[in-house]
């Protein structure tokens, strides 16, 4: 069970990770056996209407590209493309690393959850919701975990393990002494529309995106994020009363200022009149 907007509990959408996870396992195996590194960044970017894109960017470091030049070219992403992913690359960067970018549009919370779950470990049990209320306010939420409970074995689904009789390259990986943190990095960035309400873990970037880095020691990191979109104009409902108060204050200030000016003018006139009368009195006595 996972948390969702408004304190509701719903079951995560059941999605079995596809070959995208297996492709990652193959690359991970190459990374481990060559003592190189693969870094994956997944970004969720939703618009005000709840639609948006999920972007996956996988970067093989320069050493891996040099030792296994075709490590990314050889990935078979036919299933991913058939399931709506758009691919770009691999593109070699000036530092010698290579990056492949995959983008999947989403049009609903259900589709968002399905897409993220299809990526596989360390993303686990992802659910998403978009909940409007009677006032027109909309709550957006995403839930789940980042976890690698079985280390490198987390990347092998049951079907793959059954086919090969165990974790591929298990002996080689064990012999290498490489740990998941040495070979693999996974970052999740979530940008939901509206005002941030809850994100107990992660770091808020300058643009409001919540960034989380997956642990690789078997522990789980909660990715619960919640935002609230207020009805159009609600943020400025205070502006009307404030403007009225400001106008009243301005009028009062103008009236008081005018009254003060009149008071000063009258006082000066009276002083001049008294001075003039005293002067006439002195002339009469003289």
Order of helices and strands: EEHEEHHEEHEEHHHEEEEEEH
Largest sheet strand order:
5-6-4-3-9-12-11
Query: Strand pairing plus helix content: what structural class?
Result: alpha+beta
The biggest beta sheet is recorded as: 7 strands, mixed
Coarse morphology: elongated
Low-confidence stretches: 4-19
Mean pLDDT: 76
Distance between the termini: 108 Å
Please, how many helices? 8
* SS strand fraction: 25-35%
Fraction in helix? 25-40%
Q: Give a count of the beta strands, DSSP E runs of length 2 or more.
A: 14
Rg calc: 33 Å
Fold and architecture overview:
By secondary structure, the chain is an alpha+beta fold. It is 36% helix and 29% strand. It is built from eight helices and 14 strands. It has helices at 19-34, 62-67, 78-82, 109-119, 158-164, 170-176, 180-183, 239-285, and strands spanning 2-3, 9-10, 38-46, 52-60, 86-92, 98-106, 123-132, 138-147, 184-191, 195-198, 203-204, 210-213, 220-222, 225-229. The strands form three sheets. A seven-stranded mixed sheet has the order 5-6-4-3-9-12-11. The radius of gyration is 33 Å and the shape is elongated.
Write the layout of secondary structure elements.
Layout: E1 2-3, E2 9-10, H1 19-34, E3 38-46, E4 52-60, H2 62-67, H3 78-82, E5 86-92, E6 98-106, H4 109-119, E7 123-132, E8 138-147, H5 158-164, H6 170-176, H7 180-183, E9 184-191, E10 195-198, E11 203-204, E12 210-213, E13 220-222, E14 225-229, H8 239-285
Parallel strand pairs: 3-9
Antiparallel strand pairs: 1-2, 3-4, 4-6, 5-6, 7-8, 8-13, 8-14, 9-12, 10-14, 11-12
């Amino acid at each position: 069970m996972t948390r969702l907007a408004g304190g509701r509990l719903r079951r995560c959408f059941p999605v079995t990770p596809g070959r995208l996870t297996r492709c990652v396992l193959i690359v991970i195996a190459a990374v481990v056996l060559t003592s190189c590194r693969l870094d994956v960044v997944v970004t969720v970017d939703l618009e005000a209407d709840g639609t948006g894109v999920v972007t996956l960017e996988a970067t093989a470091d320069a050493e891996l590209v040099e030792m296994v030049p075709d490590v990314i070219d050889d990935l078979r992403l036919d299933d991913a493309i058939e399931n709506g992913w758009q691919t770009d690359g691999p593109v070699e960067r000036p530092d010698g690393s290579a990056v492949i970018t995959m983008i999947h549009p989403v049009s609903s919370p259900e589709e968002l959850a399905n897409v993220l779950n299809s990526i596989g470990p360390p993303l686990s049990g992802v659910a998403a919701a978009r909940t409007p209320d009677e006032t027109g306010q909309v709550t957006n939420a995403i839930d789940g975990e980042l976890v690698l409970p079985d280390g490198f074995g987390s990347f092998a689904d049951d079907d793959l393990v059954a086919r090969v009789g165990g974790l591929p390259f298990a002996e080689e990986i064990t012999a290498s002494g490489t740990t998941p943190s040495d070979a693999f990095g996974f970052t999740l960035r979530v940008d939901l529309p509206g005002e941030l309400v809850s994100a107990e873990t992660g770091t808020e970037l300058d643009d409001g995106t919540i960034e989380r880095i997956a642990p690789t020691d078997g522990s789980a990191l909660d990715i619960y994020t919640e935002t609230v979109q207020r009805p159009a104009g609600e943020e400025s409902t205070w502006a009307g009363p404030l403007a009225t108060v400001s106008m009243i204050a301005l009028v009062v200030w103008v009236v008081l200022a005018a009254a003060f000016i009149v008071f000063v003018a009258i006082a000066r006139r009276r002083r001049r009149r008294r001075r003039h009368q005293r002067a006439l009195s002195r002339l009469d006595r003289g």
